[in-house]
Amino acid sequence: MSEAYFRVESGALGPEENFLSLDDILMSHEKLPVRTETPMPRLGAFFLERSGGPETDHAIPQGSKLELPLWLAKGLFDNKRRILSVELPKIYQQGWRTVFSADANVVDLHKLGPHFYGFGSQLLHFDSPENADISQSLLQTFIGRFRRIMDSSQNAYNEDTSALVARLDEMERGLFQTGQKGLNDFQCWEKGQASQITASSLVQNYKKRKLTDMDD
């Protein structure tokens, strides 16, 4: 039976998201606090509480604080035109970075932000003076949590793992599932239940084309 959806890898840890990835689509809709640096004409209709009224063409006044989805904030951000400035979400500010550096394993990342690493990597797009500290914190947080995640995935065979993954962000859950698959494959191999190795479809198709050419 064929799968209805083949998972597409996230590109959020790179410069741009992969919009064929469901994880990236969901991540790009997470809200980001911003401050308008110039009036925004005709956009007040979408933010009625910030609108300047009909006499201002429903403009969003300069200095308004909004929460925009990441994809929209990235589209409007421009260092030269100064349309808006971005405020760091609390979990990426110095206070939380101190917590992560003390012991990243005690933090419930999924509760704070299910796409913690991907969203944090995309914040580097906005040229904050804290970018170097944010990137270092993301890296050290991942390193600090990686071993426990993989240890857990390798020591939970045929068990309910919902409690183990509840505190992990989406990327960490993917790592956990990869570890679980490796464990299950090894157990099947050890019991003699591993599937027979067969030629890949690319090799089979190549042989078919070669036979067809020979017949011609």
Automatic annotation (TrEMBL):
The keyword Lipoprotein does not apply. GO terms for cellular component: GINS complex. The GINS complex plays an essential role in the initiation of DNA replication. InterPro entries: GINS_A, GINS_bundle-like_dom_sf, GINS_Psf3, GINS_Psf3_sf, PSF3_N. Residues 21-77 form the DNA replication complex GINS protein PSF3 N-terminal domain. One of its GO terms (biological process) is mitotic DNA replication initiation. This is DNA replication complex GINS protein PSF3. The keyword Nucleus applies. Component of the GINS complex which is a heterotetramer of GINS1, GINS2, GINS3 and GINS4. Forms a stable subcomplex with GINS2. GINS complex interacts with DNA primase in vitro. Component of the CMG helicase complex, a hexameric ring of related MCM2-7 subunits stabilized by CDC45 and the tetrameric GINS complex.
